[in-house]
Amino acid sequence: MSEFGTLESRIRRKSLMKKVMKAEETIQFFKSGMNLGWSGFTPAGYPKAVPIALADHVEKNNLQGKMKFNLFIGASVGAETENRWAQLDMIDRRWPYQTGKDISKGINEGRIRMGDKHLSLFAQDLGYGFYTENGRIDLAIIEVSAITEDCGLVLTSSCGVVPELMMVADRIILEVNTGQPSFEGMHDIVMSQNPPNRQPYLITKASSRIGTTSVPCDPDKIIAIVESKRRDKGRAFTDMDDTSEAIAAHIIDFFSNEVAKGRLPKNLLPLQSGVGSIANAVVGGLAKGPFKNLTVYTEVLQDTMLDLFDSGKLDFASSCSLSLSESPGFPRFFDNWEKYADKIVLRPLSISNAPEPIRRLGCIAMNTPVEFDIYAHANSTLVGGTRMINGLGGSGDFLRNGFLKIMHSPSTRPSKTDPIGITCVVPKAPHIDHTEHDLDVLVTEQGLADLRGLAPKDRAQMMIDKCVHPEYKPIIQEYFDMAKKECLAKGIGHEPQLFDRCFKMQQNLAKNGTMRIKNWDIKIDLCE
Amino acid sequence: MSEFGTLESRIRRKSLMKKVMKAEETIQFFKSGMNLGWSGFTPAGYPKAVPIALADHVEKNNLQGKMKFNLFIGASVGAETENRWAQLDMIDRRWPYQTGKDISKGINEGRIRMGDKHLSLFAQDLGYGFYTENGRIDLAIIEVSAITEDCGLVLTSSCGVVPELMMVADRIILEVNTGQPSFEGMHDIVMSQNPPNRQPYLITKASSRIGTTSVPCDPDKIIAIVESKRRDKGRAFTDMDDTSEAIAAHIIDFFSNEVAKGRLPKNLLPLQSGVGSIANAVVGGLAKGPFKNLTVYTEVLQDTMLDLFDSGKLDFASSCSLSLSESPGFPRFFDNWEKYADKIVLRPLSISNAPEPIRRLGCIAMNTPVEFDIYAHANSTLVGGTRMINGLGGSGDFLRNGFLKIMHSPSTRPSKTDPIGITCVVPKAPHIDHTEHDLDVLVTEQGLADLRGLAPKDRAQMMIDKCVHPEYKPIIQEYFDMAKKECLAKGIGHEPQLFDRCFKMQQNLAKNGTMRIKNWDIKIDLCE
């Protein structure tokens, strides 16, 4: 038995005990070509025992490329599952977000068909039956803490798209995780109706509870129950650096000014913060900063949130997942359960990322893109405009609907071929996930550009003045001046661009290893 | 007196009678540099007498360029007001949408600073005080049908951003329109609180009423009341053509299939339809089609909606404006008031376009872009990527949040230099307002591409197969094959593009007058 209770004590609906089996025994249920749905979100709350057993089976029997599946999961899951599946050529389609070197390689070499979508849309569209031929998911694999007497699924460290999977899955395998405490009571589950019968989500503060603590499940669909003792392989903590600290300082300063002007309440508004070193620095800055009684309404909580709770500044946090590090995050959380548990609610992705509560609450959205351009279009997904990293995630859900829409990035990123680095502020983004209509404030360590109410050319000048790295400033200023002059002269200059030159910096990087071009001249022969 | 009642009968708060004056007498209240907010939306319900009197004053006294204002209005207003102001160099800033040859010229030549934003965001951001230095509007000019005893403003043919103007305007001029019947009872006004105090909008069907029939107004802010008899200069009816009818037929067919598959109810879901010949053809197709008990939840109702009501197929329509043609639209509407009035509700822009009801109701969003690309990014605003036409409007509010997100366009548009026309499906859109993450279905007269659940390369092939004009099909297929080959070989091919060639069709149009290029060769000297 486990120190966290026996499997028997976790399966409170006793008639289900007869469906308990070993992970290896579930391999019989999988057939190549199946559409699979998993629990899990940003490596938290995903099934582990069954996917790993299946991967072992494929490896042992040399079935690489002969057992391929379509994977629909709320967001990324642990590398030991989806990335290992990619290594073993077990993935055909993957929606809507992923993490891992091998899965990314498979996508960018054309072996894995990935699609990304705003996460709130992915969740509901899955429930609408938009992703598969017959609208169904053949098999769902769900990690649970417990099963209630009436067959309610008590989830673990995330909610993901489990409610939608209950709507469209034909068969269900449950993994009961007895290797950690039960998360019972932390979830707020809403089984959303599809239109035209959908009802309002009556969330009016981050701490609002509008649902139930378990997900209703049809017991006849459950074909297997497997015990698992594996924990989430949560991401390692990203250290802060000077650049991130400078960005965070600009943002805290901006908040203070907005409070002074009466445009933000003294305790700000519910915060959404992405992942990574800048997000960590912002949370760190808030822990030391002047604002009290903060709340968080976001999609993922990471280790730094525990620091913010410990600082006494954070009253409550709502999220889709609790994505702590395997160590020290989760042990710290479990050891202090009483301190944190009643200040956190975990919601399904369709609720955590829904425009309705995000806009009503007036979230402050903060995310890091790959790059942004002078007019405030941002690329969040495709390096160089074509190579997928992870996916769009929920950035668009929060940026479109937030009270303030903030993106932050270092002004340059390291390059192997240029000691100054490549610029993250470009004349034209080679791929666009968030448009100029969706962003209010862009920040680099150089400064903060408050673009609210500015016309495109005014935005561009402010971006150059405030955000561009000094080494790139004269280059981008020259482009902007030239584009303005040429376009305005032709009466086509609302948002000036020169389509023969707008990607010259990127082209020069590919050819000569640097974006710091010597001039904007270019000679083009169209070969017609 | 007017046939529609006297000014006295319309001003039911009698103490306000002393503020009645002639339009010319309000000129004293205007000072160059002021921030002005008007009622009005898609030439409906905008002030006319005062703006025209001010324009006459400027013209008569040669004050061109010496009386300039910043104009904040829900959307476009009649050409006799904003376009005339542009002619007379009376506009500095203009948000967030406009119509008119002279205003567009001023924007694209750099004299008028226009910015566009999703209309739902514009409305709320205006109420947040994001658009002006002190967050205030100096003077609001509002067209009303009547003023109630408790100083409620009964609006006319649109609601626009009047509730937000009441929050931020320092002074108010009212135009009481006695040249047409009062619209009293048709509006459903919600004075939305700003976060963190915003409450749910409990709209669960197009016909839900959640507010009041007039807008509360502080009588002390009213500095003048002017009588007006001018009617809205609504747009002329756009005739249908074969292309539009073919597009509409594809869409109706698609709806039938979705109903058959059980993914849409028999009476569909609330419809949002843009403006123009394709939208007219779709509405025309619905009037003759198999679907009954339809509802509409949209931002603008045009003449064709009266046909849909008359067909008996339409039960109810919710909109921000009733933008009928001056003739025959409005006379037909007024003559049959009893038939239409209780089937229409007019809502403020902040409600009509809010993600909350749009997503809850599951609207079917249909809009026409300038162009879209093979990966399903759409350009709705900037011809050639830089020249502003009208603005983004509410297309993004509905496309992002609709149950189905549909864009429709002819496969080609007429060109003066190429008898085949220019293609509206391009390898890469030169400007992007709606991303691949926001669109489900793209349609041209060639066919309908249902892109739901498809990865980028699969989307591109379907777009080429279904939507591209036959003359352009081999050209774009060649680009796509070449881009796939080159990018996949480098392991950067999630969404293949070639940044040296992706705009070659546009560059060739500029140089040689045609997008039908002979080959994809190009020679580039970066001049480094």
Q: Care to give the gist of this entry?
A:
Two copies of one chain form a homodimer. Chain A is α/β, with parallel strands linked by helices and 528 residues long.
Written description of the protein model:
The structure is a homodimer. The first copy, chain A, has about 525 residues and is an alpha/beta fold. The first copy, chain A, folds into 2 domains: about 5-230, Glutaconate Coenzyme A-transferase, CATH 3.40.1080.10; about 240-465, Glutaconate Coenzyme A-transferase (3-Layer(aba) Sandwich). Chain A is built from 17 helices and 27 strands. In chain A, the strands form 7 sheets. In chain A, strands 1, 2, 3, 4, 5, 6, 7, 8 and 9 form a 9-stranded mixed beta sheet that branches. In chain A, about 60% of the residues are buried. The mean pLDDT of chain A is about 95. Chains A and B meet through helix 4, strand 4, helix 5, helix 13 and strand 19 of A and helix 4, strand 4, helix 5, helix 13 and strand 19 of B. Strand 27 (about 525) of chain A pairs antiparallel with strand 27 of chain B, so a sheet runs across the interface.
